[in-house]
Amino acid sequence: AICLLAALPSTLRNQCYSAAAEDYFYTHPVKSQFARLIANAFPFRRYEDAQRSLQACARILERGDSLLFFPEGTRSPTGQLQRFRKGIGALVQGKSYPVIPAYLQGTYEALAKGRLRPQAAIVRLRIGSPQQFQDAPLGEASAIAIANHLYACVQALGNTEPIDNSRSLGERHG
Fold this sequence. Notes:
By secondary structure, the protein is α/β, with parallel strands linked by helices. It contains 7 helices and 5 strands, in the order αβααβαβαβαβα. The protein has helices spanning about 1-5, 20-25, 30-40, 50-60, 85-90, 105-110, 140-160; strands spanning about 15-20, 40-45, 65-70, 100-105, 125. The chain has a 3-stranded parallel β-sheet with strand order 2-1-3. A two-stranded antiparallel sheet has the order 4-5. The longest helix is centred in the C-terminal third of the chain and has 19 residues, at about 140-160.
C-alpha cells in the first residue's frame, strides 16, 4: 500500500484508503497505528465476516474516495502473483467504480512475507487501463469471472520486461 500511495499526488493520498488484513495489521496497537498513519488503512476481516468488510469498502467508493485492495488476500510467500479471491468481483460487479489494475514488482525482495526489516530493492509500479463492471450480472459466478479477469490484467502488466532487483539502490553501476 505504501508504494501505491507514494505514487499518488499528495492531494489525493488522504482520499485513498487501504484495506488491511485485520488478523495481521491489527494484532498490536503499534502495528495498527502504523497501518493507519502510513497507509491510511482500515481493518479488513478476511476470514470471518468478510461481507461486512466488503460493505465498508463499498461505502468508501460510494462517497467518491479511492480504495487500495489487494485481491490475493495475503502477501505471496514466493513473490509470485497468486490467484485473486472473488471478493474484488463481489465488490465491483454491477457498479460503475473504475478498477485500475496495478502490478508491483520488487516488493518481495524489499520485504518478504515474514521478514520484519525491509531490504534495499528496486520496486517498480506498473499501472493498467481502468476496467469497469457495471454491466456484470450479480452473483458468485460473475464475482469469480471478474476476479479472474483482473488477475489476467495484472499478470499481463507483470509480463513486460523483467528488472534486476538484485542490485541495491546504494550501489553504483557503470
